[in-house]
Amino acid sequence: MRARGLAVRYGDKVGIKDVNIDVHEKQVLALIGPSGCGKSTFLRALNRMNDTVPNVSVEGHVELDGEPIYGPGVDPVLVRRRVGMVFQRSNPFPKSIFENVAYGLRIAGVQERAVLAERVERALRHAALWDEVKDRLEESGLSLSGGQQQRLCIARALAVQPEVVLMDEPASALDPIATAKIEDLVSQLRGDLTIVIVTHNMQQAARVSQRTGFFYMGRLVEVGDTTTIFTRPKERETEDYITGRFG
What we know:
Number of strands: 10
CATH class of the domain at 2-91 and 164-242: Alpha Beta
CATH superfamily of the domain at 2-91 and 164-242: P-loop containing nucleotide triphosphate hydrolases
CATH architecture of the domain at 2-91 and 164-242: 3-Layer(aba) Sandwich
CATH topology of the domain at 2-91 and 164-242: Rossmann fold
């Protein structure tokens, strides 16, 4: 994916302005920065989730595989099928574990039970959850622990086989053990798809990502190789944030 001149406004309030960035295939891009700096706004612009917010306006250009996602006649539902999203707090539906994962497939028109079963199992395996739930697929998704619920939501996003997965602080509400499982999962998934993750945890960004972007006051201040960003940033604002002088 790539964004050029991307700006998002909520009425008169600027969310992000003039963002230019490339999201490299089968890599993890971490987005860091203080609260309210535009990270989540940018993330939601990558699959048109901002379209659901009243009075929002989007300017600039976003491409997926060279095709504009904001072009005339582009169906945002199809964009979100190719660019999945996992939110900060796990949000399983009040349905069985199986139906939670199958939900997007059914919306896409998949009804054959054998096909659903195969796709659900594959998604749960990719989300490192299959061994924990394979004998309880008819139980409610709400019966799972917090970390398991978040992996269930990741499986739900993976079931429709997206090309890109966006993660908005997916481990911020989890304990250290569950957080480690999510981080391991992100590292494993990178071989199959592209991931963009928003995190307040700079150690987490350093552990899971190949590239890191620093947002501040609606601007993308700097983006580059993760090791370089954390050890030799080009911009003073990036260095000040990483060393704890503000934020």
